[in-house]
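Exercise: predict the fold of this chain.
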Amino acid sequence: MHSTTPHDEHWPPVGAGRWTRWWGYLARWLLFGLVVSVFSPVDEGPEPWWQLKLIQAVVGLLFGLACALVFTPLENALNTPRVPWKSWALVVATWLVVKVVFVSVLAILG
């Protein structure tokens, strides 16, 4: 008898492929994006304070998601032995690239 349930059939086996450790990386990047954005200062404006904090939280979560989508395949392709300095280099590179893209998109959107 097959041990997987019907709803698990579309998931790749754990520990294999480009998206290995995806859920762990996703959780860490989402937490990072949320904490960094929520603890940023809020500019005074016509909107209530809580509304601006909510917008910051959503943008932070989107930033974390984008970082996880970039970092996971890079880590699994370029650092299969999980050398710590390579992982940290990929973390910094991922943060930098995604931050530049986010700031550029926000600047274009106004």
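Check your answer against the key: Residues 15 and 26 are 15 Å apart (CA to CA).
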